[in-house]
Design goal:
Layout (H helix, E strand, L loop, with lengths): L1 E8 L2 E7 L8 H16 L5 E6 L10 H5 L5 H19 L4 E5 L2 E3 L1 H7 L3 E5 L3 E3 L11 H4 L5 H10 L2 E3 H7 L4 E3 L4 H13 L3 H13 L5 H17 L2 H19 L1
Parallel strand pairs: 2-3, 3-4, 4-6, 5-7, 6-9
Antiparallel strand pairs: 1-2, 7-8
Protein name: Short-chain-enoyl-CoA hydratase
EC number: 4.2.1.150
Organism: Nocardia macrotermitis
């Protein structure tokens, strides 16, 4: 359990997220993920990094239980910093990052996927930002890299989801495959990149980031400021408490 890294084949490093049951990462998990991606991309022999996850879904965002257990704002601040570091590690990775998305990709998962270079998804994958239903904001910066502006706004305000097939239609998801074929599909793309000259690939990553129209780091930090305001005002605590009550009621009904 945790963040694991291994060399799959020459030039390809694989970083795996494994936080059962739903890959909702605690603060330490986000920092560990950032470290693993940076270290993988920094290794001279690496030409591409594959980011994947074990379990039911790719990522369910931050660990809400960690927030609720903290009477102050320490957990929130660490989660904010941890997410920022992980998202930045993907974007700033010295080599391309291929993300393999299985099942659900929510909240912080959108930050990771939106900042990656190539997205491959299983045919049961769904993508969404339920932040407004949790009393928080964030990762609209990254969702805007996946869908057109007005659809991003609609998804954000409604906390709605899109399928991998819909994102494939928009061109943000490169390939959609059955879940059993997901790792192989991600590796196929990764090996294609790894067969290129590493010096050219690293230069290309810098060049593409350099011509990006949006400063993803500044934009995301701006969003996080409003999340902090909602928490300081007590709005987030109130909404999270209602969310916990709803979950408890659903469990009783079952």
């Amino acid at each position: 359990m945790g963040i694991n890294r291994h060399t799959e084949t020459e030039g390809v490093e694989v970083v795996t997220v494994d936080y059962p049951p739903v890959n909702a990462l605690p603060s330490d998990g986000w920092f560990a993920l950032a470290d693993a991606i940076r270290e993988a991309g920094r290794a001279p022999q690496t030409r591409v990094v594959v980011l994947r996850a074990e379990g039911r879904g790719f990522n369910a965002g931050v660990d809400i239980k960690e927030m609720n257990a903290d009477s102050g704002h320490t957990a929130l601040i660490r989660a904010n910093h941890g997410c920022f570091e992980a998202f930045a590690a993907v974007y700033d990775c010295e080599v391309p990052v291929v993300t393999a998305v299985n099942g659900f990709c929510l909240g912080g998962g959108i930050g990771l996927v939106g900042n990656s270079d190539v997205i491959v998804a299983s045919d049961d994958a769904t993508f969404g930002l339920p932040e407004v239903d949790r009393g928080a904001l964030g990762a609209a910066t990254h969702l805007a890299r996946l869908v057109p502006q007005h659809l991003m706004r609609t998804m954000f305000f409604t906390a709605g989801k899109l399928t991998a097939q819909q994102l494939h239609h928009f061109g943000s998801v490169y390939k959609v495959v059955p879940r059993a074929e997901l790792d192989a599909a991600a590796m196929e793309v990764a090996k294609n990149i790894a067969n290129k000259d590493g010096r050219v690939i690293r230069a290309a990553k810098k060049a593409l980031n350099g011509i990006d129209v949006q400063d993803v780091h500044r934009s995301y930090r701006f969003e996080q400021g409003f999340t902090m305001e909602l928490n300081l005002a007590g709005v987030a605590d109130e909404i999270r408490a209602r969310f916990d009550d709803d979950l408890a009621a659903q469990k009783k009904e079952k």
